UniProtKB/TrEMBL annotation:
Pathway: Pyrimidine metabolism; UMP biosynthesis via de novo pathway; (S)-dihydroorotate from bicarbonate: step 3/3. Zn(2+) 2 binds at residues 145, 172, 225. The keyword Metal-binding applies. This is Dihydroorotase. Binds 2 Zn(2+) ions per subunit. It comes from Cryptosporangium phraense.
Length: 437
């Protein structure tokens, strides 16, 4: 393994200095190293995504663990949490182990499987949570994402069950009775377009209920893709009461609004739907003040036939891995809402903490599973690194992305920030902006 000297990079706290990498670790100094001139570049701890749909097994025509891993590395990620809504569903130890192993074989990013909460995502019977936790994949996050665990008794049991191994239930908060036939955000836009609406209360009511359940059983709740100003209020209230709840927001909910539905272009169809400009403002403020803990991509690749069709027939979801950091720079850094220390926290430290990925043994090696992420940029820590050129601008082209799918909502948009290099345990997965495998 080569040694690297990253010269003159600007750390999250604003100081510019050198960083040496040897045998996968950050070290004091190194010799015979490959030098990377990083003057003017920003160094971040490797990004961690709490919410990635890799589509394997089942929809390898839309994405695979390999193509999704490449997209992740190119986006600056060193770890992604793979959602359970695959086919078959990741609701048993054998399946999460397979996803975890395939991720290791590709080796571009640590793929940490998320286990389903209920068998087959049917919302009724709990999946093998304990067996998945004890498996080689060491699952700590469980989610029926794509579906809401809507039965309060099932949600309560799941929250109770994962306490034994400090697991967390990541809820796709959507009361299904309130979103039957929904096509977009319920509001002025949906009334004008004549499309059935997905009201904010369908999300907010479930977050409030689940926060109370988590408090009642003394367990840990994570809320996926928070999308409304009301949800932010509920989260603020819950956190103020000391309830152990964390939340994520997607880059698209930080930038795009429901006015885009007027194009009837299904690329803008997503769950939860794009909301109003007021919601976007509230989400940005909540991410800035920590009410929302993390940015998560909800990278949701879809095959052509599932997106290039009528709005009502299209599947919800957008690509996100390769554009996440640039969108965060544009919406949060360039607006002055978040500094780079904040970016490091919301995109690396916090998501790693929520997913239980920060653990190390005494010798500085990862305990098990996918390994240690979201650690400080300090001597002795694993060299999971992202090097960004914040002043470079680039224009998104669907064909220029590493994903198999093409459903980016940002085609033609100019964005700030290119990923120059990504290091996974001291090995470059991206160098000079190019994937290394
Ligand atoms: N976000 C989406 O619109 N779609 C996701 C499921 C989900 O995250 O809810 C998918 O799997 O395609
Ligand atoms: Zn979801």
């Amino acid at each position: 393994m080569s040694n690297y000297l990253i010269r003159g990079a600007t750390f999250p706290d604003g100081t510019a200095k050198d960083l040496a990498v040897e045998n996968g670790l950050i070290v004091e100094k190194t010799e015979n190293a490959e030098v990377i001139d990083a003057e003017g570049l920003r160094l971040l701890p490797g990004l961690v995504d709490l919410h990635t749909h890799l589509r394997q097994p089942g929809r390898e025509d839309a994405e695979t663990i390999e193509t999704g891993s490449r997209a992740a590395a190119l986006g600056g990620y060193t770890a992604v949490c793979a959602m359970a809504n695959t086919d078959p569903v990741a609701d048993a130890a054998g399946i999460v182990e397979q996803v975890w192993r395939l991720g290791r074989e590709v080796g571009l990013v640590d793929v940490q499987p998320i286990g389903a909460v209920t068998l087959g995502l049917n919302g009724e019977r709990l999946a093998e949570l304990g067996a998945m936790a004890e498996s080689a994949a060491r699952v700590r996050v469980f989610s029926d994402d794509g579906h809401c665990v809507h039965d309060a008794a099932v949600m309560r049991r799941a929250l109770e069950y994962v306490k034994a191994f400090d697991g967390v239930i990541a809820q796709h908060a959507e009361d299904p009775k309130l979103t039957v036939g929904a096509q977009m955000n319920e509001g002025e836009q949906s009334a004008q377009l004549g499309l059935a609406g997905w009201p904010a209360v369908a999300e907010e009511a479930i977050i409030a209920r689940d926060a109370l359940l988590a408090a009642h059983v003394g367990s840990r709740l994570h809320v996926c893709h928070v999308s409304t100003a009301g949800s932010v209020e509920v989260l603020r209230w819950a956190k103020g009461r000391g309830i152990r709840v964390t939340a994520e927001v997607t880059p698209h909910h930080l930038l795009l609004t429901d006015e885009l539905a007027a194009t009837y272009d299904p690329v803008y169809k997503v769950n939860p739907p794009l909301r109003t400009a007021e919601d976007v403002t509230a989400l940005r403020e909540a991410l800035a003040d920590g009410t929302i803990d993390a940015v998560a991509t909800d990278h949701a690749p879809h095959a052509r036939e599932d997106k290039e069709c009528e709005w009502a027939a299209a599947r919800p979801g957008m690509l996100g891995l390769e554009t996440a950091l640039p969108i965060v720079i544009r919406t949060m850094v360039e607006t002055g809402l978040l500094d780079w220390q904040g970016v490091a926290d919301r995109m690396s430290h916090a998501p790693a903490r929520i997913a239980g990925l920060t653990g190390l043994t005494g010798n500085g090696r990862a305990t098990s599973g996918a390994g240690a992420h979201g650690r400080p940029l300090a001597v002795g820590e694993p060299a999971n690194l992202t090097l960004v050129d914040p002043s470079a601008r680039w224009t998104v082209t669907p064909d220029g992305l590493a994903s198999i799918s093409r459903n980016t909502p940002y085609a033609g948009l100019e964005l700030p920030g290119t990923i120059v290099a990504t290091f996974l345990r001291g090995r470059p997965t991206v160098l000079d902006g190019k994937a290394q495998a």
